[in-house]
Amino acid sequence: MELKGSAAYEDDQFFRNYMKRRHREESPNKIIEKPVMLKMIGDLVDKDILD
Predict the structure, then answer these.
(1) Domain definitions of the chain by residue range
(2) What are the pLDDT digits (tens) for 26-40?
């Protein structure tokens, strides 16, 4: 079965593997993206966040 686009995340095995890789300590999200995003956001003290 070929998984395409966002529908791939509906497949249990695909999603479990994705989450396993996504949350590892050496994940690019943790070592590259998160620090950059936090720097861009700046100080959030006394600020409200709308999600």
Answers:
(1) 9-41
(2) 999 899 999 999 999
